[in-house]
Amino acid sequence: MLGGGRASGFLATGLLYGQVKKRDRRWRLVGVTYVLGCGTRTALRAALMGLGLSGKLNTAFVERVNLTVRQSIAALIRRTWSTMQAAAQLLLQLEWWRAYYHFVRPHESLRVQLGQPVERGGKRQGQRDRQRTPAMAAGLTHRRWSVGEVLLLALPAVPIGAG
Quick one: which of 36, 27, 29 has its CA closest to 6? Predict the structure, then answer.
């Protein structure tokens, strides 16, 4: 995932892979084990610190993404009227949500400060920052897409009766 480790068989040179394993007893956390799959501890720590993180593996980001996905797709909410009938339907909902999340929805943490506020007319204050989506931040697009544009995208073929 991050560069800087050793190659093993068919794995890419420089791959770093770490895993956090949590043990619980009666719904209480009783222990945490850190397992290093590829690379060295010092290389992994240096790569994480280079990204502005603490240098220690944790599950916070994965758990945050899991919660966001679960709250965004009705069939994954624990108590809901929307029950999923087939895996293919769930896959289509998930793919639509991924496109919306990455191309349509601006993220607060990805805003870019403008050098000079942009006037918006009337009594409104000038725009001080530019909203961005993850796709804009990654350089995949230069603007936010509309929901209509995402809905017009071709969906992957799903076999009838799949799931």
Answer: 36
C-beta of residue 107 within 8 angstroms of C-beta of residue 114: no
Rounded to two decimals, the pTM is 0.62
Q: In residues, how long is the chain?
A: 163
Q: Using CA atoms, how far apart are residues 23 and 37, in angstroms rounded to an integer?
A: 19
Cβ atoms of 100 and 76 closer than 8 Å? no
CA 21 to chain centre: 21
Q: What are the tokens at 14?
A: 């420089």
Q: How many CA atoms lie within 13 A of 21 on its CB side?
A: 5
Q: Are 73 and 63 in contact (CB under 8 A)?
A: no
Over residues 48-94, the pLDDT tens digits come to 898 888 888 888 888 888 888 888 887 777 666 666 667 777 888 88
Helix (H) / strand (E) element for 116: namely strand 107-118
